[in-house]
C-alpha cells in the first residue's frame, strides 16, 4: 500500500508489511514507535530499521537515518490504528460489527451468535477461542481475546473476502483501554455482567467498569446497546448510555425477560416475554447463567432484524462453546464438566450448576489451579468457593507463565479453611484421579483451562491435549478396569 494513502509525506513509499516486533525481519515495513506500560517503541527504532522498516512513525524527536521516511505525530497509537485499517482495505467498515463485553459470558454469547447468524448470512467470530468463519477455527497470533489492530483488521478482511457480512467480536476491557477497537463502528454492543477481575490491569472495580463503558461510548444514537439490567453495573450503564438501549433480565422487568425457567442436565426451558408476547424457548444449554446468555443472543438477533420465530428452532441445537460448561459424555454414571472458570464469580456459577445436577447425598470433586503473573487476587476467591461448596479438591497445573507452578499451588492451598486439598502437579494425573474417585451421581468439575490445548509457560505455549481428551480417556479406562 502507498504510504500517501494515509500520511502526507514528501516521499511516497510502497509499504508491504506492518512491523509489530522489531526483532523479526519484516521487509519494506512500517514501524510505529508506541509507548506502552513497560517499553517505549522509540528505543527499538534502530533494530526495526535493521530488520526492514523503511518508515518510522514516532512522537519524540529521533536521530534520522538517510533513506528512511520519518513521520512525527502526537498520537502514534491513533496513526497505527488508522494505517492498519487502511492497509486491509477498510474491510471492517463494510461489515455489521457486534461487540460483546462483560466479565463472564462474552465467549458464549459471541460464539452462539456466530453459529445462529451463519444459518442466514456469512458471519465471523473473533475472541477467546481465536477466530472462526465457515465453521473453521483458527488460533490468533498473540493469544489475545481482542487482537491488536494489525491482526484484527487482517482477520476482518479475510472474513469479508470469504463472504462474511457480520462480525461478532469479544471486546475485552484491556482491548478497549489500549484502543485496539478504536475506529471500529459497532452497530450493536452487549453488556452481560461485571464482577471482580483484571485488577492487575485496572486496579479497582470502578476503573474496570469504566473500561467496559468505552464500548458503549463508541455507539451512535441509532446504534443498539443491549444490557443485562439484573447486574448492578448494567443498571448504571443503561442510565448513562446515549445509544438505543435495550434491556434483558430474569429478575427485573425488561425488554427481553425470561420467566418460568426450568433447568435440566442437558439444557433449559423458559418463557420469553417480549413486546407483549410470550415465546416458549428450549435450548441445549444448561445452567441459569446460560439463560442470560441466550437472552442476550435473542435480543441481538431480533434487534438486528431476525424474527424470534425464526431464531427459536436453532436454539435447541446451537453449537455449544467448547470448554464452557461442557458436559463430557462417555456413558458414565456420574457427571464430568469442563469449564473455563477462573474467577470467583465464574466459580460461583459453575458450582451452582454442579449442585443443580448433583443429588444431595452425592459429592462434587473439583480440579483446578491458578495462573501466574496475572491478578493474584483471584486466588482467595476461587479457593473460598471451592472450600465451601466442593467435597474434594485437587489442585493442579494451570498457566504458570513466569512463576513456579508448585509455589502457585501452595499459595492457592493456603486459602482453604475447611478442606485439605491434594496437590498433584501433573494435570493429566489429577484429572485421572478425580475420575477414579467419582461414584454414581457424583460431579467432577475440571476448571480453568476450558478447551485450551496448551499451557502458558515462561518458554511460551506448551502443548496440552485438553481437559476434555484427558477426561474421556480416563472415563474409558475406568470402565475397562471394571470389566
Would you write up a description of this structure?
By secondary structure, the chain is of the alpha/beta class. It folds into 3 domains: 3-83, MurE/MurF, N-terminal domain (Udp-n-acetylmuramoylalanyl-d-glutamate--2,6- Diaminopimelate Ligase, Chain: A, domain 1, 3-Layer(aba) Sandwich); 91-315, UDP-N-acetylmuramoyl-L-alanine:D-glutamate ligase (3-Layer(aba) Sandwich); 326-482, Mur ligase, C-terminal domain (Protein-Tyrosine Phosphatase, Chain A), CATH 3.90.190. It is built from 15 helices and 23 strands. The chain has helices at residues 45-50, 76-87, 106-117, 149-161, 173-177, 199-202, 205-217, 232-240, 288-303, 308-315, 344-357, 378-389, 405-413, 427-437, 467-482, and strands at residues 17-19, 29-32, 53-58, 69-72, 96-101, 123-127, 130-133, 136-138, 166-170, 186-191, 224-228, 244-249, 256-264, 267-274, 277-283, 326-327, 335-339, 364-368, 392-395, 422-423, 443-447, 454-457, 460-463. Strands 8-7-6-9-5-10-11-12-13-14-15 form an 11-stranded mixed beta sheet, sandwiched between helices. Strands 16-17-21-18-19-20 form a 6-stranded mixed beta sheet, with helices on both faces. The protein has a 4-stranded parallel beta sheet with strand order 1-2-3-4. β13 (256-264) and β14 (267-274) form a beta hairpin. α2 packs parallel to α4 (149-161), α3 (106-117) packs across α9 and α11 (344-357) packs parallel to α12. The longest helix is centred in the middle third of the chain and has 16 residues, at 288-303.
